[in-house]
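Handout, page 2. Input:
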Amino acid sequence: MADEKLNANDTLSKVLAYVDSPFKLFALILMAVLAFAGWMFYDNKDLLVGAYKEQQKLPQIAEGRVDDAASHLFKHTGAQVVAIFKVNPILGNRVLYRAYTKEGRDKTMEGLDVGLFTNNPNNNRDVVALMANEIPCSEYKTAQSEVGLWYIEKGMTYGCRISIPPDEERFIGQITVGWATPPANLEHTRAMMTIAATMLAKEKK
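Output:
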């Protein structure tokens, strides 16, 4: 026991003798961090590999039908804006894939990851509703993200969201539709959104 204590003290003395400059201290800390990161990766490799495999299994939105779905929504709901997101619930990503106004596609915000769950309670409430196969609709007066600023800039004051596909089994995307004034017939609007979300769940054959 005494020998072990001496060896530990001797090792500590050697380390302290080595660290005789700020650069060496930084190098020692960096090596420790890298060693810890390596150990964490090795210790959780099965979990990480499993998550990657699950991610690869996730279907993708039907990219070839995105323009058609947006056109359908503008035509049948009188939308001011339409935004289509790709969602990865495993990684917690929600990336804006396409954004449209009545004038056409707007690339300003495309590619932006706004996250799935955020520190905004209204957003998180809607995400839970989407996962439960609901179509949450409400006034939109305060932006919930950078994309939300774009919504407001384009005149949106009321919005609805729907998951792609419109069921509880999968959540691979999201459609947000916004209006300058609330739709006169919300039931009809939700039905049209369901059609659009179904269109984006599968490619044409």
